# Entry
Amino acid sequence: MYVATKGGERAIEAAHAWLAEERRGDPAVPELSVAQIREQMSLAVNRVMAEGSLHDPDLAALAIKQARGDLIEAIFLIRAYRTTLPRFGASVPVDTARMAIDRRISATFKDVPGGQVLGPTFDYSHRLLDFALMAEGAPPPAPTRDPETANTAAPAPHVLALLDRDGLMEPQTDGAETPPDLTRSPLEMPAERALRLQALARGDEGFILGLAYSTQRGYGRTHAFVGELRIGRCIVEMEIPELGFAVGIGEIELTECETVNQFTGSKTEPAQFTRGYGLVPGQSERKAIAMSLVDRALRWEELGEDNTGAPAQDAEFVLSHCDNIQATGFLEHIKLPHYVDFQSELELIRRLRREAVAAAPQSAAPAAHSAPAPSSSPAPSSPAKGEAAE
Amino acid sequence: MTARATRKARPERPAMSEDYNFAYLDEDTKRMIRRALLKGIAIPGYQVPFASREMPMPYGWGTGGVQVTAACLVPEDRLKVIDQGADDTTNAVSIRRFFERTAGVATTTRTREATLIQTRHRIPEEPLREGQILVYQVPIPEPLRFLEPRESETRRMHALEDYGLMHVKLYEDIARHGEIATSYAYPVRVAGRHVMDPSPIPKFDNPKLSGNAAIQLFGAGREQRIYAVPPWTQVVSLDFEDHPFTPSKADAACDLCGAAGSYLDEVITDDAGSRMFVCSDTDYCTTRQAEGHRGRLNREEVA
Amino acid sequence: MSPLLRVESLGKSYGARLGCAEVSFDLWPGEVLGIVGESGSGKSTLLGCLAGHLAADSGRILYRGRDTRAMSEPERRMLARTEWAFVHQNPRDGLRMGVSAGGNVGERLMAVGARNYGQIRAAATDWLGRVEIAATRIDDRPRQFSGGMQQRLQIARNLVTGPRLVFMDEPTGGLDVSVQARLLDLLRGLVRDMGLSVVIVTHDLAVARLLADRLMVMKDGHVIEQGLTDQVLDDPQAAYTQLLVSSVLQV
# Structure
């Protein structure tokens, strides 16, 4: 007697318990603390905060722990939590020119006011596994702090602002109106640049990286130089109506990239450089550079460039597919039951085949069977029977 | 593996309801969704953009339906959740538990007892009544999407009632297959105006969309769209005069309850090609069995 | 009798660049008007404005007395799929390449409410015959057709709803000479039999001579000469037209 599968509830309970066990791993190995993840896996924490659109290193670390290191799953946890948070207001725009610099490089000028600061980068590390890190408890050599760099509180103006002053850069004006909020209003096409930048900032690092790479290889080429890449901390300020002025409410780490791109000019405008922009919370320069390339590629229309049909030029394509939480959800939903749709397809295809067979000329029907296989490999009987029944 | 399986499940976690607002979403969000729902009701079949929130379940797993349900639920509601017609499929269980925890509402598996039914891919067999709400989970709300990928263009086509392309698709089906080869998510025209995707229900269910006493609400979370069919609204499945729409199902009766007119799941029972058919609507089937109806494989308690 | 289409002082520019300016003419029922000129002369801009593909900046376009520039988008689209037709130079722009020949011809019928498959198919078969495409090709896709066949299919797709006014943009461009001749012959027959009014843009004066009753010569966005086809081609007045005609005769 057939009984339809029951007990989905018990199965889910058991699956969750098993998952918790797997997450913990071997109990003989000490458990990771959230603080350890926050401090020692900080780039993972940064990515979860950036794509989760929530600045909270502790929660991001917790999410990574809970997600067993699956960063998209961790981002998902943060996004779902973020939905439930009340909104108290909006900060005033952060002033990245006043950033406390940890790292700042320009590929376009050998030296710039404020200096080039290498900062904590993998760039010139040889990618050799450091087996010393395996020896537990062995502390890395203590860094020596150069007293000269410690007091570079001197302002580091944006490199592109220097070109701007000479009129070589496309002018950039502050929009007076508050930009729309992607997380509070539905994305409608065509999307203005502010909205595009928001989507890119929280978009999947891998997707944005791939698109940016495609522009470099000729699919929507923009000839980008990194005018400036800077990483550091900015003060977040909020206007308090009762006070009538803005007060600092905290500090966040940001990575900002501005690219300088070729532009030949047109009949009405003299040649000048254009820019692409990337801003990502936390230290995430790969994402920031990629974002600025994609931003620039998406601007083809306003700059009067040709649409070459490259994916990175297609705003609707990029914005509809850059969010990894949307993508992973929809991708993975095809593992949910689809018995009903499948059943209806099954009926349809059976009927179409039946009709096709009935309509086919009689001569074709009794196709000559090939000689039976040698007796050494006995043919399985059931599939053959199934076919004969058809 | 077996050792793990026999290990005892953890005791139930405490209810989340105290940490979150009633039905999870904050009141502002619910108000925003209700406005979209009202607009949808006012323009039957029109896709209303709404600022879909990230939910604690994946996109594509019913986040649109869940948000619509959350915006409609009141504490007195009795909720039923089905997936593929069944109350006990894992995703239905998961969504039902979500609302048990976050809204504390009563739940049921009985269609007639429910005030709100969230569904994925089916319309219950038992006719709905006035006052009930049926919430559909929708993966791709745009019926023109696979003919025209651009949102900006499809919205214009709806605005201008430019639906020739939809019929071209049906024409091509008939030219190639001799009939309209769309078996689920079969496009409909609502109240003589908007062409609508009824979500991936089998076309067998399409006739139930029309003149239904219940409010039918459709939520697509990832695609940020809500649409609706008000009670007693005419919903017509697109077709040609000489190739009329025909709802279809497996040519069999339920092997458990004997129902001849319900939508059936095909179940493969061994590796020799044996199969049986059972109602996809589990409540309908169990109710009929309780009333004494019997199917082919359920006459006496023999394997 | 009143003109089918009356154009008054039509102008369109792209920023500082002029598309066309101060264009005025009347098109009478059953008349074929040719617009000739070299590329960049504004003839395609003018055609685009007339057909509603481009928004003109100034002037009036009166179709049967109604200003199409003042029409709502749905009204204009309805016109575009009933009383008007547009034949593109490149059949790819005017056909659905992934849809069968029958579906291509049937689309306009379905867009205006035809809901009988058998009748749609019969009309498609009839029209394929009229443009000399074998009925057995009805379920083939345009990709499987030659360039000339694709163009004939595009014409069938446009004429199936019995339009009054047809816009054509270099309909024979890009085809071999022998294929061109056959297509022109076909077009001439259809125009005469259906009593169509046509605005045809071409840079090919031979095409203009064969099809058009009247010609308008454009240069730098302006109409510099117009008149009966024979008159313009045999006795051109404007220096530019003389150059245009003589350059053709040399070939």
